[in-house]
Amino acid sequence: MKTILLIAAFAAGAAQADAPVARANWAVARAGDQVYTFFGLGPGKTDADIARDVHALDLRSGVWRKVGDIPVAQGRLASAALTVGGKVYLIGGYTVSARGEEVSTPEVMRFLPDSGRFATESIMPVPVDDSVALPWRDRWIVMVSGWHDKGNVADVQMYDTLTQRWSSATPYPGKPVFGHAGGLVDDTMVICDGVGADKGADGKNVFAISNECWQGTLDPQQPDRIRWRQLPAHPGAPLYRAGAVGDGGRILFAGGSSRPYNYNGIGYDKQPSEPSDAVFSFDPASGTWRSHAALPQAGMDFRGLIPLGDGEYGLFGGIRAGQQVSAGVIRFRP
Prior knowledge:
Strand content: 35-45%
Organism: Duganella callida
Shape: globular
Strand order of the largest sheet: 1-2-3-4
Oligomer: single chain
Helix content: under 10%
CATH class: Mainly Beta
Protein name: Galactose oxidase
Number of domains: 1
Number of strands: 31
Keywords: Signal
CATH topology: Neuraminidase
Distance between the termini: 31 Å
């Protein structure tokens, strides 16, 4: 018995280990007992610090390992990673040139954990980054709003992983946004916040955070029909690039920043953005919001929230107080 307890204690302690690299904006997905991290931004926070590697955390041993590199010419930011039908998909994102030009990328890549290889499976009809990508009924991927090259789009794009075909669903009825967050429970998704972009008098984008939350009800008999309704705003300030997930009958949100920012963490108002420690959730069954205890450490610039088991969740990497890119995992129980 003592040996078993010691092994369990060692594994729990090891699971707290930092990643081998510090990264913000990691696209993250869990497959079995492995959490995979893709792309991301290194501590220098310049275009030269945008990575294209893959790392994995084994939740049983707590050991990190480098899996390999993603077969693209440049690293990307604001991609989405998710697991559907036991397969890991890496979708979209954007590249940044040395001159600061940002271009949305269209590929849907399927990642094969056993071999560490990638296959380009499809091309998005409307390439988007900083979108919300949700797995539905272990078959579909639902992509809601996001940024396309020069502006936000209201498109809801649905990818059927069985037929490998795209369809256009009922558009997002709120203000089109990027950097929003959301989750899906059964056939109900909730999408919140993000940043809208309006044209100023000079024709340039004027960015402002949104406090809108919308609930969308999906129908497997008519996958492209979504019934949307607006929800009351969630507790606390609206957030940009929070982590979110649908799990345990609720949609859970954590972290983010109340000041929207460029990829380097500096706000569009030229002030450094600071992270939030907020945690809140929505219960579709009761239609109510709930506030939870604050995170043990504030964090921002997340691309997902991962259930770790036993009621625990993890936010991987990100930017912490003082604009520091982190290699840590913020673990918490709501």
